[in-house]
Amino acid sequence: MTERSDQTLETASGSCSALEEFIRSSISRMDAQERNMTESGRAIQALVVQVSELTQQMQHLRAPTALPTPAVPPVPPPSISQSEARLPVPESYNGEPNYCRAFLTRCSMHFSLQPRTFATEQSKVAFALTLLTGRAALWGTAVWENQDPCCASFQTLAAEMRRVFDRAVAGREAARTLADLKQGGRSVSDYSIEFRTLAAECQWNEEAQWDMFLHGLADRVLRKIYALDLPTTLNGLIELALRVDSRLSRVERLKVTLWTIRLHTRFTFPCYLSPAPLLFTPLTDKHYLTFHSPLDPLHSSYLATTRRSLHSTSWTLPSHPLF
Questions:
Q1: Distance CA 131, CA 91 (A)
Q2: Per the database record, which ranges form the Retrotransposon gag domain (predicted)?
Q3: Phi, psi (5° rounding) for residue 309?
């Protein structure tokens, strides 16, 4: 029994020794394989680097040597020809002092928008002189025929025309005119146009213009405006005055219409005039005489004659009263 147990232990110990030896040999083989794989990876990386260098060298050898090309100047873009704007011919000028600057401004704008048509100063001067009429044409003819120095360019011609014809208010004179400007019996639209024209010639600030426009309005407009909230800007004040004036005008027209209808209804009665002056013939149902206004100078004569005729003649009168 004891011998058999000893044999079993010896067999087991021998098996353990063989297993340990197998494990150690397996670990050593795995370590060897790992070292081989690491070395193989390094070798592969080295080969990749070499192949890359060789590829670059081959591309460099195959590429032909490029000769330096001369610098080519840039080609300017083709110019696009644009047609000039077609403008109506400015209105002629007859020498009116207040419209000299407006005429010269229109001519200058015409030349600016048609530079090819008026490429020379002589063409500009000739064009402006052909638009002169009346006394301005007489002056233009004289300076052109005498080859006056003002015909050298349009600028000199414009300066001479301002000196001769321009009498429009400007500067201090415009400021004095603006200070005395009143609406009067005209509309707010006409008043505001003249006010803005004079204000453009002055150097007044908006606050001063606001105050001058308000105090220049007519009393009938001022009474309505003062009952409202006044705008703080000049444009707002002018728009408010225009609305108030428009409403007042509509009310006046409505009053006149109602007054006319009321008078027409009151002074219409059935009668007609006889051939004899200021005499009435007997009434019929087919003839009517209408007085449209009690202010007619013949109205009182008709009434007086009718009253006398009624007292002296027997009439067949309608059931409704005549007066």
A1: 7
A2: 127-218
A3: -65, -35
